[in-house]
Amino acid sequence: MRCPHLTPPLVLALRNRRIRAALAVTAFWAAFGAALTPLGGCASRVDSVVLPGEGGARPALPAANLSVPSDRIESLDFDWRDEARGRSVPARLYLPRSEGGMPEAVPLVIFSHGMGGSRFGYTYLGRYWASQGLATLHIQHEGSDRSVWTAGGWNVVSSLRAAASEENAIARAEDVSFAITRALAEPSLAGRLRAEAIAVAGHSYGANTALLVGGATVERAGKKLTRQDPRVKALVLISAPPFVGETDMHSILAPVNVPTLHITGTDDVIRIPGYYSGLADRIAVFDAVGGRDKTLLVLQGASHGVFTDRIAAATPEANSAIKTATREASALFLRSVLLGEPRGALLAWRDATDQAGRDRVIERFVLPPAPATNAVTTRVSARAGWAD
Known about the structure:
By secondary structure, this protein is an alpha/beta fold. It has a single domain (8-385), classed as Rossmann fold. Helices cover 33% and strands 22% of the residues. The chain is built from eleven helices and 13 strands. Helix 4 (123-131) packs across helix 10 and helix 6 packs across helix 7 (205-214).
């Protein structure tokens, strides 16, 4: 039925499902973007999220650049349910393929998606990490997964508001701990995972989730609120936004003492009505984390959305270079922490990018101070005004 208060062009727009969803997203952020709850995450900017019907519209990166041979990995899907919380936690696990005999136990990395994602995303990371000897469990967070985009019409507004709530942020962190416990107890995975070698990685809202599991703490009604899981030994934080509404980031992130890798880009911007977050915020999160063992990688031209499987507003070559750097550096970091491999491998990787001509993708690279017993020295690229 025609609404007399709407102009004809807007009426026509509302009849188009994809335009309707986009308008709902914009309306939501216009109303609530500046008032997100502190623990709640933020969505990628509207032009970087997958709207209904758009999931397969953009091609994957060229297979020659980022493909992983299928004979090197295997994948398993699980439809777990946490009965204690009445909450489903679907997951997809990427594993190194065992070559006969008893499979070797490997470290476990839990991956937390951004707003509107699912267990089927970020395959360029999951598949590659598995090929490098790391089991990678991509979990799906009910309430902030891709269902927020399929709520229909203006219901997207309320879905996004609920997804960004403090309650949902806490539930996401609890999803991670549940998934760790469930994976270690899964009969089909007996003997294949190392319980003492666990890390959590995430993008955007997922990076906030990882920080909560890694020890981030806020104060509520005079009490400390945290969802730290002592089984987690390292964090990979991709495009980590600040905790919105909190003024003292250092007090929130000081308790995060496990080794962390922070990956961001010069164009890593979340720009939505009423809210803006750019590279400076990613650096602020890096600076505020309390642990001394923290590494920062800033990639030239990397936007907020480029870290997903989709091709963002850049050339295929740039997308490939950014994703290649992201997966290679993160795999080396994870192997160094979880398997005890030399941290100097990251410096060797940095030097290899020089020789391969890929150095242009690295804008800033900061390694933690080396322990006294380690001959590796800290190196910082002197690009764009940053010096040793």
